[in-house]
Specification:
single chain, mainly alpha, 10 helices, 0% strand, globular
């Protein structure tokens, strides 16, 4: 006779690690690196803090893994956008990648996590290194896939940073001159 305990599938360490990373994105998005504890992440994930420490040796390791996870999601969205481009010109590819990214950051948690990572990078060398490496990989990926010029690539990332600002402060929902100026031509989902 098969019992429900026999049928129950135990999650693997990789599955649990992914669950913790996904949960940590939301948790760090709320209060950033400095305002979030591993206890906060564990409670939200429904696991013990000790289990978090089995997967990640400390909070900095957890946060840097979350930042790397975030960069992988951004890279995947760029890839999806490039594949959906309506043409092979740099402009068409960059536009499609930008649209895919706008859809990705509609997940406000992911957007806020990226912003918190950039802020923490200013004072934490290990986080700075992960952020630098993440952007280095993204810039080279965008360059290789789009065929864009240095100016095209810089503009692409500049608009992305402007999107962070506009979305994080809900400027796209305001009907004021400054908000219209910053939001003009940006896509929001």
């Amino acid at each position: 006779m098969t019992t429900s305990a026999n049928r129950r599938q135990l999650s693997t360490a990789d599955q649990r690690r992914k669950t913790v990373l996904d949960t940590a994105v939301r948790t760090f998005a709320d209060r950033g690196y400095f305002g979030t504890t591993t206890t906060d992440v564990a409670q939200r994930a429904g696991i013990s803090q000790a289990y978090v420490y089995r997967l990640f040796p400390d909070k900095k390791a957890l946060f840097t893994a979350v930042v790397e996870h975030c960069f992988a999601l951004v890279r995947d969205s760029f890839s999806d956008g490039a594949a959906a481009a309506k043409g092979s010109s740099a402009e068409a590819v960059l536009d499609a990648m930008g649209d895919a990214y706008a859809r990705l950051i509609a997940d406000r948690d992911l957007l806020l996590l990226q912003m918190h990572a950039q802020c923490a990078a200013a004072s934490e060398p290990a986080i700075r290194e992960v952020v630098q490496d993440g952007y280095a990989r993204l810039v080279e990926y965008v360059r290789s896939v789009s065929g864009g010029t240095e100016a095209d690539i810089q503009r692409f990332f500049s608009v992305g940073m402007l999107c962070h600002l506009v979305v994080s402060v809900d400027a796209h929902q305001l009907d004021t001159p400054w908000a219209r100026t910053l939001s003009a031509g940006l896509r929001h989902y």
